[in-house]
Every structure is written in structure tokens, then in C-alpha cells.
Amino acid sequence: MVHSSNVLLNFNNEIRQDRLAMLHNSILTASGVLVICSLILLTMGLFSYDNTAYGHANPVSYSPTANSIISGNQDESLPAKVMILFSERPEPKVSYIHVTNSKNQRVDNNDLLITGQNDREATVALDKSRLSDGVYTVSWLVLSRDDGHITKGSYVFNIQQQQLQQLEGVTSASSQNSNNTFSDQTKVDNVNMSLLISPLHVGLSTFNVTLADQSGNPVSNIRNVILSFINKEVGLGPIVANLNKTDVVGMFTASGSYLSQPGEWEIKVTAQRSGEYDLNHTFKTTVNGATTAS
Fold this sequence. Notes:
By secondary structure, the protein is α+β, with helices and mostly antiparallel strands. Helices cover 23% and strands 40% of the residues.
């Protein structure tokens, strides 16, 4: 009986050891699966981040360049085409580039071509006989052949005789002292945001954004201030302008012909802050008319 009990005891111990070994192996297997799953998720996250950062067909370069001033003294100096190099390949059957003057009249030949660097360069010819002094808006829409997404946007360039360039430098300075300006302010997340446009007209203007706290002190953690212009009446925009810091803390400025046509414009101000959420507000103004804010 004693011998039988010892045999049974040894048998039970062996069963316990086998179960412990199986449990240990299961834990190791589960840990391995968790590690592998974590690596897979991490890899997917990296690829997802890469697509977010670099996905879609976005402009890489423009010709003429954005917000440039082209001398119109001679026909040879006028641009013969508009070219946009994109980060992905545009689908020509859907994509377009439209170029309009300040009266919203088309001055391109509606002959979009996709050429150049790996079929990423889109061009449209301009009708030089319709080019004169003024501001021109390039509006583009692209369906990417690489990821199937649609992107759109606008930018502006100017054609101006040298004499008019010099004259505008004088008249622009005097216009800024006139009443033809837009000025409004609002409060966003306990920050006072003000926008000043001078002069308020179609063409070259100066845009100033000032940010201050409730005590009137300048906000010091602003990294970037971006303006986005949209004119829904004629389908323009967004036209994007990055403002520059000034010597005054909390004040940012830019000059350009971003108000390229008459009508009601929505001007979105985005102030990017360090360590805090962005500040966003959209002002509204009517060029050559009354101004309002939203």
C-alpha cells in the first residue's frame, strides 16, 4: 500500500510539472504574440504617419511663383504658361488649372498637359493677348493617380509695368493712411485676435495680425500665423499666406495680392501655438464694399 501511494504521488507530481510547463509555454507564446502584434501595430503606425505626411497630390513648385510681380514692359517678359509640379501624378481627365484676371475672365487656353518629372508636372498655356497689368489667380484641382484623392487650391501672381510698380509703392503708402481699410478683432480661447488689412482693395495689400492676452500683453508662444483666403462667389481658394514675425512680439504681417477679385472674402486666421491648441477664426470682408466679421 505504501508503495502504491508513492507511485500515485509521483504520478501526480509529474502531472503538476507537465501542467506548469504547459502554462509556462503558453505564457511565453502569448508574450511572443503580444510582441509581434505590437511590432505590427508600430509598423502600421509608421506607414500611416508617412502617408499622412506625404500623401495626396500637393504642389511642390509654381511657375510663375506665388505672389510674384512680373514686369509687363515687353511681350517677351509675359509668361507663356503656368506650370505646377505636384508631389504625385495628376489624372489629366479630371485635373485642371484655370487662370483668371481680376474680372474673373479666363486667360488660359484650357489645354492642360501632364509632362515632366514622372508625369507630375501640369502646365496650361496662357493667351498673351489677354494679359495686361493686374492680379491673376491660378486655381487648380488634381485627382491623384497614386492615391485617388482630390486636392485643390489657388495662388496669385501680378503683372505690372515698372512705372506702375514705382507709382504703387507711393500710392500704397498713402492708401494705408486713408479710411479704405479693414479692421476687426475677436476673442479666441481668451486671446484677443485682431486683423488689419490696408488698403482694402483688389491688388497689393498689407495684412497684419496681432495677438494679445486679456491684459493686453502680447502672446509669446505663437509659432506660425497663417491666412487662408476663400471667395465662394467665384470659386477661388484657398489662397494661403504665411505671415512673418515683426519686431513687435505678438504681431505678424504679410503683403500680397491675395484679395484678387471683388466680392465677399472669408479670411481664416490660424495661429499655431507651442504647447497649446491652435487659435482659429474666420473674418469676412467685402472688397470695394462694406466689411463684416463672423
